[in-house]
């Protein structure tokens, strides 16, 4: 299902993902359809990103007889970046219902395009073994790098972090890989261009506004 690069960057190659992403790109797609599409792609990203998780073996009993089963060993936590990361969270929670969700508030300043941290729900001590960082778009890469730094300072090693995004720019992806070599990244697709004001082209537009139907009239 996925094409894997040696640098631990995984770009999904699946007709269902391509079709759903194509619908997300269109300006005629409604907020409801956009939310559903982000959810569906996030679900596939979560399944693919979980394929190498360590399993713990246990002995169980079916109505017929004994069996050897398995369960996920590491404690998984999610860190969605507000607000667009919320659009990915429910899909991941359907896979890991007991996972804690630690919201991170980071926005990109419009002039400098630099990330500004304004909120963190990370507890003093990590209670999880692995973090899935959720951010639908990696444009310049600044926001993702700021979030990664927060999680690393919290005490989660880089090898225990997986960055999941619906769409990345090649420039933003290169920046994240350069600043955090060895990070495992999962993306549904990568676009080649970034505009002068830091937007992915052709991209999806403002994912947060499209998820929560807060587009200004001129943008619709």
TrEMBL record:
Location of the Phosphoribosyltransferase domain = 11-214
InterPro entries, from UniProt?
Answer: PRTase-like, PRTase_dom, UPRTase/APRTase
Q: Which domain of life is it from?
A: Eukaryota
> What keywords does the record list, in alphabetical order?
Allosteric enzyme, Glycosyltransferase, GTP-binding, Nucleotide-binding, Transferase
Provide the E.C. number(s) assigned to this enzyme: 2.4.2.9
Can you provide one Gene Ontology molecular function annotated for this UniProt record? GTP binding
Give the metabolic or biological pathway: Pyrimidine metabolism; UMP biosynthesis via salvage pathway; UMP from uracil: step 1/1
Cofactor(s) it depends on: Mg(2+)
Please tell me whether the keyword Coiled coil is annotated for this protein.
no
Any Pfam family from its record, for instance, is: UPRTase
| Glycosyltransferase found in the keyword field | yes
For this protein, the record's PANTHER family field holds: ADENINE PHOSPHORIBOSYLTRANSFERASE, URACIL PHOSPHORIBOSYLTRANSFERASE, CHLOROPLASTIC
| Family from the record | Belongs to the UPRTase family.
Q: What is this protein called?
A: uracil phosphoribosyltransferase
What is the organism of origin for this protein?
Answer: Ceriporiopsis subvermispora (strain B) (White-rot fungus)
Q: List the top taxonomic levels of the source.
A: Eukaryota, Fungi, Dikarya, Basidiomycota, Agaricomycotina
């Amino acid at each position: 299902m996925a094409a894997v690069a040696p640098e631990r960057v995984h770009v999904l190659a699946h007709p269902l993902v391509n079709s759903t992403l194509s619908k997300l790109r269109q300006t005629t797609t409604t907020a409801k359809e956009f939310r559903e599409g982000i959810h569906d792609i996030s679900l596939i990203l979560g399944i693919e990103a979980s394929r190498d998780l360590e399993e713990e073996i246990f002995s169980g009993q079916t109505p017929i007889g004994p069996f050897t089963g398995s369960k996920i060993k590491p404690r998984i936590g999610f860190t969605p970046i507000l607000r667009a990361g919320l659009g990915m969270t429910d899909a991941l929670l359907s896979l890991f219902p007991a996972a804690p969700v630690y919201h991170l508030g980071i926005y990109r300043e419009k002039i400098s395009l630099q990330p500004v941290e304004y909120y963190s729900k990370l507890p003093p001590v990590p209670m999880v073994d692995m973090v899935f960082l959720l951010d639908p778009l990696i444009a310049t890469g600044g926001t993702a790098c700021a979030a990664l730094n927060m999680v690393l300072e919290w005490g989660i090693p880089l090898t225990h972090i997986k960055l999941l995004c619906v769409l990345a720019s090649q420039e933003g992806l290169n920046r994240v890989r350069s600043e955090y070599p060895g990070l495992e990244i999962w993306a549904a697709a990568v676009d080649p261009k970034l505009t002068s004001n830091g937007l992915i082209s052709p991209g999806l537009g403002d994912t947060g506004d499209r998820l929560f139907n807060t587009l200004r009239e001129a943008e619709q």
